[in-house]
Please model this.
Amino acid sequence: MYIVLLGAPGAGKGTQAMEVSQKLGLVHVASGDLFREVRESDNDLGRLVKSYYDKGELVPDDVTIQMILSRLAKPDCEKGCLLDGFPRTLQQAEALDEALRKQNKRVDRVISIQVSEAELLRRLSGRWLCRKCGAPYHSVYAPPKKAGTCDACGGELYQRPDDTEATAKNRLEVYNRQTAPLITYYTGQRKLTDVDGEKAVEAVSRAVVAVLKDR
Ligand code: ADP
Ligand code: AMP
Model:
């Protein structure tokens, strides 16, 4: 099963991917996580990714598509995966369809997580992540038991450099301009289901799992 989680920055894609991948035993592939790793590299690719990432702009399609398709070619994705943050442009969606079609596979379902813009900004400004295991926290909605420390693994928590107010606002604009058209694309393929992302984490994941079990 190849599942795409679609939603604006802060909608809860990473949070839901962690919950749902555990519940359904699906591999979680997050383009943002892959780029955060590449961004740390002291080479041309690392510097290129950093130059887009730090402004809240999308990394160019050719680089992104190549990175994700080589990740999908690994054996753990052979039977499917949960895609979080990819595709984010029409060109990426078409490249994904084409690559899967060549193997007689396809995107099975797309979940669009809906959250209002005011709530997205509240979520991004309060987001903390574990440096070690990637678990998401929020200073108000999901605070860790001990400030600055991950409940799950004891790792150090950090705030993303692109979660500052100005960069987060730009990322929402980029989403509306470049990614929102995918809603029409996947609606046309009759694969899209909307899920209300403003409910509590557990309620949202129950809704996502229900959609995936229903297909
Ligand atoms: P995305 O991957 O879509 O950018 P995240 O999963 O990282 O979003 O979530 C953004 C922030 O919102 C995190 O701090 C997370 O803890 C919080 N969050 C996620 N889902 C919910 C929810 N349903 N209710 C309240 N806060 C949430
Ligand atoms: P995310 O963790 O999904 O919020 O992504 C963080 C950043 O990584 C984005 O703002 C982009 O700079 C880059 N990125 C992640 N996924 C993609 C994608 N599919 N296409 C282009 N850039 C991406």
Notes: Residues 165-179 form the longest helix (15 residues). Residues 9, 31-32, 35, 52-53, 56-59, 64, 85-88, 92, 162, 171 surround adenosine monophosphate (ligand 2) (CB under 6 Å). The chain has one domain: 2-124+162-214. The radius of gyration is 17 Å.
